[in-house]
């Protein structure tokens, strides 16, 4: 089978079904950083899937980190006691776009991020 992946590591099969990115580190597909980050996000948000990436990010001028998992996208910030937590499940997202190279636009039925 021809395994073609996009720049995010996702693969689309002949039926049009998209699979999540493959883990790339470690012999069993997990690195210690990836496992730590996954446990950290589970402690903050509950069930989260496997975190496949984390990036510096800001939301409404509040600096934090964007965590991308196999189940959802998360934003977390805790600066000087001002905590912000956002969880967006992929099943609730109606649109996800990369704007330029520095911004991600996520739209759900209720709001836009």
Short description:
The protein has 113 residues and is mostly beta strands.
Structure description:
The chain has 113 residues and is mainly beta. 12% of the residues lie in helices and 44% in strands. The protein is built from one helix and eight strands, in the order ββαββββββ. It has one helix at 32-45, and strands at 11-12, 18-19, 51-59, 62-69, 72-79, 82-89, 93-99, 103-108. A four-stranded antiparallel β-sheet has the order 3-4-5-6. Strand 7 and strand 8 (103-108) form a beta hairpin. It starts with 10 loop residues before the first strand and ends in a 5-residue tail after the last strand. The model is unreliable at 23-29 (pLDDT under 50).
Write out key terms for the chains shown.
113 residues; mainly beta; two-stranded antiparallel sheet; 8 strands; 12% helix; globular
């Amino acid at each position: 089978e021809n395994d073609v992946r996009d720049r995010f590591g996702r693969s689309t099969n002949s039926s049009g079904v998209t699979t999540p990115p493959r883990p790339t580190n470690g012999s069993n597909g997990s690195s210690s950083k990836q496992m730590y980050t996954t446990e950290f996000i589970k402690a903050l948000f509950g069930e989260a899937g496997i975190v496949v990436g984390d990036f510096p990010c800001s939301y409404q001028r509040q600096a934090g980190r964007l965590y991308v998992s196999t189940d959802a996208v998360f934003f977390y910030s805790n600066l000087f006691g001002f905590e912000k937590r956002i969880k967006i499940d992929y099943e609730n997202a109606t649109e996800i776009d990369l704007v330029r190279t520095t911004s991600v636009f996520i739209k759900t039925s209720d709001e836009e991020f």
